[in-house]
Design brief:
Layout lengths: L2 H12 L2 H19 L27 H5 L3
């Protein structure tokens, strides 16, 4: 066992039970945070050119479209 780990355990054992539980729980929470993968970083520009829009995109749709006759 490493000296740092021995010192950690020694100090933990000297604490009152309530504090020992508190610090042990906090330590485990920190370990869980480190092992939980974070959100993947998106790379801007990867989909560039994959979507196109017609020049009349903003124009109103015809009545035929809304009545289902188109």
């Amino acid at each position: 066992m490493s000296p740092v780990l021995q010192q950690f355990i020694s100090r933990l054992e000297r604490l009152p039970d309530e504090l020992r539980e508190h610090y042990a729980a906090r330590f485990l929470e920190e370990l869980d945070k480190e092992n939980t993968p974070g959100p993947k970083h998106r790379i801007p520009g990867l989909g560039e050119g994959s979507v196109t829009m017609t020049s009349d995109f903003d124009e109103p749709l015809s009545d035929d479209f809304w009545t289902g006759q188109a």
